Amino acid sequence: MHDDWKPRTRMVHTGSRRSRYGEVSESIFLTQGFVYDTAEDAAQRFESLGEDEFIYARYGNPTVRMFEDRIASLEGTEDAFATASGMAAVTGALASMLRAGDHVVSARALFGSCLYILEDVLARYGVEVTFVDGTDLDQWRAALRPDTRAVFLESISNPTLEIADLRAVADLAHGVGATVIVDNVFVTPVFSRAVELGADLVVYSATKHIDGQGRALGGVILGSRDHIRKVVEPYMKHTGGAMSPFTAWIMLKGMETLDLRVRAQAEGARALADALSDDPRVRVIFPGLPDHPQHALVGDQMAGPGTVLALDIAGGQEAAFRFLNALEIVLISNNLGDAKSIVTHPATTTHQRLSPERKDQLGIAPGLVRLSVGLEDPADLLADLRRGLDAI
Ligand SMILES: *Cc1c(COP(=O)(O)O)cnc(C)c1O
């Protein structure tokens, strides 16, 4: 579908399905189900569903389908399944393909809920998971086995912004026939090259940059048509993690401005990282800075540095709290990718549940603060961050 269009054009138009009224903006098909002209017609649709036919909104819906087509076109995959949240996408991508006795290798540095799925839930269903340091190829090599079915990683880890060498990990995983599942939230769909580097399934929390305005929860699983329709869809449609049509409409509108927003936010993040990089009160972690440990990978595996930075504030938790409490523009919250800049203290919020040893191992220091850069003027944000640093 219009493969010759550039990404920004596809993000505005691809997937649109106009009704006979010829509406400009995508319609919200806020309906649970669909009517059949005849009993034969119903039987026919249940027997084999056409490209543009629907039965029940848990299985699919025209507005949701528009979003799936649009995001798949941007990511460069054949197909997509939209989900109720990012976690429904992560869980669905894993659970739809795994069974008791399977082995999974996962990077250790994960979003708290992802860690819960991989560490607690999968184990309960008899799936064995080996955790590795995602940046250490020797650990991946040692952990992979002939019975490894899947590999899971966040392409940039949350909150410490470590970057796994996706091409190398995918090559190793494919060597044993494992499916590579990438949670790509921090890279964003705009900067993603995950498919070209070897990801088989790409997962997003659409709650983050795709909505980007803090309105709705959503997620998406992207991959080959075969895998999405034969493995993911049966699991998702029967377990009930479908995206609502109204949310899909929000995400479609988000896609129209996604490129502009993400690029502006990444520019803001870079400006702030540069301005704070020689401030002795804070150590700045940002993939776009030359001193980031995996900076060399950034140019190759992502088309931009992302919109999030981590700040390790001298003086530990007390100083970090004083910093947060002094901010006037940047909000204390736990979303990211939003138009509003948001600051989080992972050790006491998103990663609170981890033991002190585990936090230590993952680099979640008491002074560590995650900053998601929004669309405000970077000069105002810099003044706000300096106000925070002056307060420590
Ligand atoms: C937020 C997030 C999720 C979960 O997404 P929800 O939409 O909140 O369910 C999963 N992975 C990463 C990396 C995230 O940042």
UniProtKB/TrEMBL annotation:
SUPFAM superfamilies, per database record: PLP-dependent transferases
An annotated GO cellular component: cytoplasm
Matching Gene3D superfamilies: Aspartate Aminotransferase, domain 1 (3.90.1150.10), Type I PLP-dependent aspartate aminotransferase-like (Major domain) (3.40.640.10)
Protein family: Belongs to the trans-sulfuration enzymes family. MetZ subfamily.
Entry's EC annotation: 2.5.1.-
Molecular function GO labels: carbon-sulfur lyase activity; pyridoxal phosphate binding; transferase activity, transferring alkyl or aryl (other than methyl) groups
Annotated catalysed reactions: O-succinyl-L-homoserine + hydrogen sulfide = L-homocysteine + succinate
UniProt xrefs under CDD domains: CGS_like
Residue ranges that the Swiss-Prot or TrEMBL entry lists as coiled coil: none
Entry cofactors: pyridoxal 5'-phosphate
Single biological process term from Gene Ontology: homocysteine biosynthetic process
Residues with PTM N6-(pyridoxal phosphate)lysine: 208
One Pfam family it belongs to: Cys_Met_Meta_PP
Pathway: Amino-acid biosynthesis; L-methionine biosynthesis via de novo pathway; L-homocysteine from O-succinyl-L-homoserine: step 1/1
Name of the encoding gene: metZ
Binding partners and assembly: Homotetramer.
Signal peptide: none
Protein name per the record: O-succinylhomoserine sulfhydrylase
Organism of derivation: Oceaniovalibus guishaninsula JLT2003
